[in-house]
Amino acid sequence: MADIIQLLPDHVANQIAAGEVVQRPASVVKELLENAIDAKATSVTLVVKDAGKTLVQVTDNGMGMSLTDARLSFERHATSKIKSAEDLFNLHTKGFRGEALASIAAIAHVELKTKTDNSEIGTHLTIEGSKVISQDPAVVPKGTTISVKNLFYNIPARRNFLKSNPVETRHIIDEFHRVALAHPNVAFQMLHNGGDVFNLPAENLRQRIVHIFGSKTNEKLVPVHEETEILKIEGFVLKPEFGKKSRGEQFFFVNNRFIKSPYLHHAVASAFEGLMKNNIHPGYFLFLEVDPHSIDINIHPTKTEIKFEDEHSIYAMLRATVKHSLGQFNIAPVLDFDRDKGFDTPYEYSKKSPTAPSIEVDRDFNPFKEKPKQGNINFPFKREQTQSWESLYVGLKDEKNTTVSNLGDIEFESEEVTGSLFENHDAETGQLTFQLQNKYIVSPLKNGMMIIHQNLAHQRILYEELLKNITVKEAVSQQLLFPLQLHFSKPDVEIIEKIREQLENIGFIFSELKDETVEISGIPVLILESHVVNLLNQLVHDIKEEVPDTGFSQNDMLVKSMAASMAIKTGVSLNKEEREHLINQLFACKEPSVSPTNKPVFTTLDVSDLDKKFM
Ligand code: ADP
Ligand code: MG
Predict the structure, then answer these.
(1) What is the mean pLDDT of each run of 10 residues along the chain (615 residues)?
(2) Cβ < 6 Å from ligand 1: which residues?
(3) Claim to verify: residue 192 and residue 219 sit in the same structural domain
(4) Of 567, 581, 542, 596, residue with least CA distance to 344
(5) Atom 25 (ligand 1): residue with closest C-alpha?
(6) Residues 160, 231: one domain?
(7) CA of 32 to the centre of ligand 2 (A)
(8) Are 151 and 51 members of one domain?
(9) Is 259 helix (H, G, I), strand (E, B) or coil?
(10) How far is the CA of 248 from the centre of ligand 2 (A)?
(11) Looking at ligand 1, which atom is closest to the CA of residue 79?
(12) What is the 3-state composition of the chain as percent helix, strand, coil, each rounded to the nearest 5?
C-alpha cells in the first residue's frame, strides 16, 4: 500500500490549533488585553464592533515591538516571555505559550501597529489567514494597536456557531472585567459600536470594583486580608445579605490571573455557611498570592484553571480568613434571617410584621389573594401609595382581608372545564383539596386523585398570562406615587434597555433608564412592588446566560424567566380558597399539563393503581 500520511500544511495546522485558543470574540479580547498588560501598559483601550464579530481592537501604551518582533510575534510558539521549561514555574506574565497571535492571525484579518520607545518610527503589518500581506513603516505613538477583523472569516462553520450579539458581548464584558479587576492600577476603556461602555481611570481595587459594578457596591464590600508564609489573601467579599441567586460577582485571582476553582469557591461558600440560605451564592473579589513555584497553570489551554501544590492548606486558610473578615465586620449579628427569606420569596414579606418579629403573623397570605385584580382590574382594594416598608405591609394585609371577604365575587373562569373532572361536592365545601409538604396540592378525582405541583402550576398560569400581555400589549400598570429608584451596573442597565419595550408591554413604566439608574414609575398589576428588584435581577441574569435575538423566542424567554421568578414557591402554605383558585386557573390555561420549561405540572393516581398496591 502506498504511504498515506502527510504533514498538514502550516495554515491548516494553524487553523486547527486556533480552535483551542480562540473560541469566540471574547477569547481574542482576553489574549489582546493580557498582551497589553504583559507589555507593561498603563492605559489600555478596547474597541469592539458587533459583539467582536466584526472588530476587536486593543490599543496600549506599553513597550511596543521592534520591526522583527512585530513579524515574529505571529509565528507559532514565538514568545518573549519564557525561554525554557523551568520558566514555566516562575511565571510573572499572563502569556507564555506564544500561540495567541499566531492563532488569531490564522482565522481573521489582523492589523498591527507598533512602536518601541527608542525607535523613531513604528511598523504597520497586515496579515490575513496567517499570510503577511504588507509591512510598512508607520508614524505611530509608542505602544501597540492590534485590530482583529472578521473573526472566523475563513471558517464559516465556526462563525455560524457564534451566539447572538448580546451573548457574545456578555462574554467580552466578562473577560474585560477579569483583566480590569486584576489590574486596577491600569486605566481601561471599552467602547462598543462607538459608545462608551467602561471608562476606568487608574485607581485602587475598591474604586475599580465600584466603577465596574455600580456605586451601590461600595457599601456592600467587606475587606479581606491575610498574610502567611505560603499565602497572601487580599480583596473583598460581599456582605451576606447581598448574595445572589445567580452566581454573580465571583472572582478569584491567583498571582493576578483570573482562575475558576470550584474547590476554592467551596472554601469561601463554607465561610458563609449559616449566614445565607442554601440557594444564595456569595459574591467575592479575592486575590491570592502564592509562590509561582507552587502552582501549575499549564493544565488548561485557556488557562483559567490552576493546580496548587498545597491545596488543603490554601482551602483552610481561605475559609478561615473569609470567616474572620465576616465576623470582624459584625456581619453575623446584623443579619436578619427573616428578611433573607423575604428576599427569596416576596410573598413571605407579609409574614413579617415590622412591629412583632413573629413569623406566624400572617401565615395565610399569598399572592392568589391578589388574583381578583387580574380578572377585575378595578379591584376593591386600592393599594395605598406607600411611603415606607411598614405601610407596604399594612397595605398587603388590607389587601388580603379585602380580597378574602370578596372571594365570593371571584369568577373562576374554568368552572365548566374542571367541573366534570373533579368530584362533585356540595356547594358549601367546594372542592376537597389539601396540601402536601407545602409543595403539592392533592385533589380527589372521580376515579382517583390528582397531585399538582404548586410552583410549576403557578408558573404555567403566569406564563400564559404574561405571554398574552407581552404579545397583545394591553397589560395594565399600577402607577407608583413614589417611583422606585433601582441601581444596577451600567451593562445591566443596557440589558434592561434592550428589553424595555417588552417590559413596557407587560406593564412596566420606566421614567428613567440610564447609566446605573433604573427608575420605575409603574409596574404590572401582577407584580408586587417588593418583588421588582428580584425580578429584574433574574431577568438580567437569564439574558446574560442566553437570549435569542428577537421576536417571539425572546418574548418567550423573558416570560418564562418572569414566570419562574414570580411563581409561588415550594414551601408556601396555601389555604383552601387559594388551592382551589390555583386549580381553576390552571385548568383555564391552554396547556395545563406542562410547565413553561416542559416539566409535568400534575400527575394522577387511579384507584386501580392503588388497588394494585393492596393485592
Ligand atoms: P505570548 O503572550 O504567550 O507570549 P502571544 O502570541 O500572545 O504569545 O504574543 C507573542 C509575543 O508578541 C509576545 O511574547 C510579545 O513579545 C509580543 N506581543 C504581543 N502583544 C504585544 C503588545 N501588545 N505589546 C508588546 N508586545 C507584544
Ligand atoms: Mg499573549
Answers:
(1) 80 74 92 96 97 97 96 86 75 79 93 96 94 94 97 89 91 96 97 93 94 90 90 94 84 92 91 84 95 73 72 90 83 36 31 36 41 31 31 31 33 36 44 87 86 93 85 76 87 89 88 89 83 86 68 74 87 87 86 86 87 86
(2) 31, 35-36, 38-39, 60, 62-65, 73, 78-81, 95-102, 144
(3) no
(4) 567
(5) 64
(6) no
(7) 7
(8) yes
(9) strand
(10) 27
(11) 14
(12) 45, 20, 35
